[in-house]
Amino acid sequence: MIRLSGRLRSALIIGGQGIRARKLRTLLSMLSLFLGVLAVVVVQAGSEFAQKELLADSELSMAKDGTLQMWVPPHAGSGQVALDTLQGRGDAVAALSTQATIGEPGVSPVNPGGSPIDQPGGRGRSYRCDSQGNCKEHLADAPPGKAIELNLTALTGDIRVFRPFRPESGQWLDFGSAPALAPRIVLNKEAAKGFNRYQVPAQMRIPGNTADSTPQIVGVVDDGGYGPAAYIRVDELLNWLPADALSKPENGGRLQVLISPAAPDVEQTLKARLVALGIDPQQIYTDRVNSRQRVESQLSLMRLIFLGMAALVLLIGTAGILNVGLATVGERVEEFALRRAVGTPRMLLAGIVLAETLLTGLMTAAAAIGAGAVGIRFGASMFGSRFPSLRAIDFPWQAGVAGVIAGLVAGLLGGLIPAIRAARIPIATVMRA
Q1: Would you state the torsion angle of the CA atoms of residues 44, 50, 54, 55, taken in this order, to the nearest 10 degrees?
Q2: Which sequence ranges are marked TM in the entry (predicted)?
Q3: How many Cβ atoms from other residues are within 10 Å of residue 419's Cβ?
Q4: Residues 233 and 306 in one domain
């Protein structure tokens, strides 16, 4: 083992001296290999970034990976049961959703049914659906006016623990303060677009409410949704309507519960109370978010295709190293024969040549990784304003590892044949010289 370590050290030292003595050829080898290693780095970095973006979009629209989702059908009393079960808990959040209209009373909203603000024919048809999924066209007899219809979600806690909304302006709901009589709401981007475009009165109507409330818009977030939506504290909403109003089938309310993987008891307790209330257990649907597996299956084929293309470019660079290595061995025949004559083992000669190509591959990998990192920083600074997700992008360590492996493999493949040829040079060559 000591002799092997000594030979390895000698091969590295002599190989480094050879690189220093032939700088131009080393530079040519690095240039031929640079694009191949850079292609591998870019493909790996791109796949990691794409996976991160797909997971971020999934977390916005659904929830973080591993979160347990529970959907409860509309039933009298289910909302109050959910509120009592989840009160004071931070590992589970109930989201009670219904349609709300903000603006002038007695008029048809600019987006009937809560459709997107820019949807063609915004004053077209709207539908109302019951708990069984039966939908009927809703014909509004009211004249058009200044009002916006949106999806209103009442929360028992901070839903950002499960769905990390991206803040756009203002602030998020403060669940630590006392509930306000004028309910504070946070809009999504589509709803904010509507309120920026239309000047509507601050009067909010909800099915089943006892009186219209005056909402306060405190912030705007990106929730990944396409329709206008708003978020409100459930205790502030309950100042204006009874708890059962959100869970009655005739009001079209929807109840969803997001549960942390570390709190399995919440699911069992809540489900037992809902069944005791009279809800059919077959209608209580639960599902665990498994976005990472779905995203990886989507990206695996694309990653293999681009890695195959990068491998072809890397092979071209490897051929360049091979060509330079064979030419170098041809010029150093007398040197290697002389080393053999003074007792240098064949394995050490092969190690010297391999050390040169491996060191060249490592230096090329370092240059490609550095260029990739600088390119990502430059792209983030140039396009960060247009694509907010690029602002917090970092160079993935997986891309650096892939670049080092690509450089070592290219150095090994490009130097293997020249190393074998150097090891087979006969001692008699020095006598002919």
Answers
A1: 40
A2: 27-46, 301-326, 347-375, 395-417
A3: 24
A4: no
How close are the terminal C-alpha atoms of the chain, in Å?
36
What DSSP state is assigned to residue 198? Answer: S
Distances (CA, A) of 140 to 194, 205, 237: 20, 16, 26
Tally of domains within the chain:
2
Strands (E), 158-267: 166-170, 184-188, 204-205, 216-222, 229-233, 254-259
Q: How many residues does the chain have?
A: 433
Strand partners, 294: none
pLDDT digits (tens, 9 = 90+) for 322-364: 888 888 888 878 877 888 777 778 888 888 888 888 888 899 9
Last residue of a domain, one of 256, 288, 320: 288
**pLDDT digit string, tens, across residues 47-65:** 878 777 777 777 788 888 8
Say whether both 219 and 314 belong to one domain.
Answer: no
The packing angle between helices 2-21 and 346-383, to 10°, is 60
Residue 241: what pLDDT?
83
Query: Is the pLDDT assigned to residue 210 strictly greater than 60?
Result: yes
